[in-house]
Amino acid sequence: xxxxxxxxxxxxxxxxxxxxxxxxxxxxxxxxxxxxxxxxxxxxxxxxxxxxxxxxxxxxxxxxxxxxxxxxxxxxxxxxxxxxxxxxxxxxxxxxxxxxxxxxxxxxxxxxxxxxxxxxxxxxxxxxxxxxxxxxxxxxxxxxxxxxxxxxxxxxxxxxxxxxxxxxxxxxxxxxxxxxxxxxxxxxxxxxxxxxxxxx
Length: 200
What we know:
By secondary structure, this protein is mainly α. It has a single domain, classed as Ferritin, core subunit, four-helix bundle (Ferritin), CATH 1.20.1260.10. It has helices at about 1-20, 25-55, 55-85, 100-130, 135-160; strands at about 170, 175-180, 195-200. It has a 3-stranded antiparallel sheet with strand order 2-1-3. Strand 1 (about 170) and strand 2 (about 175-180) form a beta hairpin. It is globular, with a radius of gyration of 20 Å. The N and C termini lie far apart (about 65 Å).
């Protein structure tokens, strides 16, 4: 009887463990994404200051909005690492040397395109194979937002010098970056519009 009880207790513990497990590769990918988003947030903040000094306030506002979004991705990735039982690796932020605002936008497009087309799809595939739900969610949210950023940056580059004034709103749950508040829910994470913060 005692063996049966122990067996049943062991089986009952399996789903909880499986739901919070992840392969070493997924933890490594989460750390890579955590570091990448940390650097992106810092880089875009520096690019915003450069755009302001170049007399391009609307582009500066976009960079600040994207910086805020990347900080949310950074924190979401960190939370996923911890939730999955991994360890957040320490690292040193890259040194940022802004170029012209046009070159900075091009660099941002390149970075966002890589994350959209290569990095996050590859990380997602591994996380899905693991069944690591926390990693899947944070990668999916970041991927959806990087698609937005790539489009916003391309539009900023196409209209550089004649960028129409406007506002940006960032969802504090997923980092969704919009030029106007949604009617009801965030189009990425489906949380309410009250989760959005206006970026000045």
